[in-house]
User: Which sequence fits this backbone?
């Protein structure tokens, strides 16, 4: 690896790093402003949307209860196990007024969500519970598809800018636009497929590595799209193929790490941020190294 390539390599990775941070920020906006309830409302399921909002509120209260339980366990040392039974006993017997108030609010939210679910099932799905579940799965897949599509869009955009500038391209904007569009389209497909794979392949007996592998497959498809988009900025067949392969490999490794980072870091926002940044950098490394190989091969042929 010569000095000139090292400089170009670092500049492209820096652009990818910026893109990864922007992608993370944009994906959090999707989480905030386009939750499943918003998608349900757009699709015409107004009562289902109300249930989903109530469900999210209930889950937020449960997270607060879990934090209180974890604090209680720390104060008690190793005397209290982290089991559903221990949590239920703590939940019903705790005398702390704040915890009691939170628990009462949670139970009220649980009852409200339960009531809204059955109302939505009766009024919008004619009492067909299976149809409600299928529609909710579909809405979840749409949400995941948009979320991953947005991540791919910004990774592709900034990586396309970095590669376009390093290639001394006269039209960096065109190269970046191609990379962003292709990345977004394939990212949406990757998000949708990854949600289907997860729902059909992950079960109670699936190991942690098995879950990580399935998640990595979805990220790999997204990385394939980013690499493909970058490769199309300078359309030579070998370069396109190798950039796509580099993006796939980088995203696959990043996707593997996502599961374990989520398990190791309690704050899910921080875990998502670190995962996206690492994956974005790994995609850039894969695309640049494979693209460099394509360039060296072409140069060798020209000099032969």
Assistant:
């Amino acid at each position: 690896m010569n000095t000139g390539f090292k400089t170009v390599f670092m500049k492209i990775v820096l652009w990818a790093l910026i893109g990864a941070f922007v992608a993370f920020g944009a994906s959090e906006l999707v989480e905030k402003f386009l939750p499943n309830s918003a998608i349900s409302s757009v699709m015409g399921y107004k009562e289902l949307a109300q249930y989903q909002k109530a469900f999210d509120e209930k889950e937020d209260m449960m997270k607060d209860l879990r934090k209180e339980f974890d604090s209680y366990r720390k104060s008690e040392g190793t005397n209290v196990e982290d089991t559903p039974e221990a949590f239920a006993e703590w939940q019903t017997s705790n005398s702390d007024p704040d915890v009691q108030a939170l628990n009462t609010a949670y139970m009220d939210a649980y009852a409200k969500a339960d009531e809204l679910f059955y109302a939505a099932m009766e009024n919008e799905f004619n009492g067909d519970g299976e149809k409600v579940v299928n529609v909710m799965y579909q809405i979840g897949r749409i949400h995941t598809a948009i979320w991953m599509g947005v991540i791919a869009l910004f990774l592709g955009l900034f990586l396309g800018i970095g590669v376009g500038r390093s290639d001394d391209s006269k039209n960096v904007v065109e190269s970046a636009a191609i990379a962003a569009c292709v990345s977004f389209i394939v990212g949406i497909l990757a998000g949708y497929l990854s949600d289907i794979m997860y729902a059909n392949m992950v079960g109670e007996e699936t190991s942690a590595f098995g879950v990580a592998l399935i998640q990595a497959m979805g990220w790999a498809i997204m990385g394939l799209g980013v690499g493909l988009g970058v490769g199309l900025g300078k359309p030579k067949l070998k370069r396109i193929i190798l950039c796509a392969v580099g993006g796939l490999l980088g995203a696959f490794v990043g996707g593997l790490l996502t599961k374990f980072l989520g398990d190791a870091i309690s704050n899910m926002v921080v875990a998502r941020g670190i995962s996206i940044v690492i994956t974005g950098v790994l995609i850039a490394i894969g695309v640049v190294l494979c693209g460099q190989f394509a360039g060296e091969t072409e140069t060798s042929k020209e000099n032969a």
Remarks:
- The longest helix spans residues 129-166.
- The radius of gyration is 23 Å.
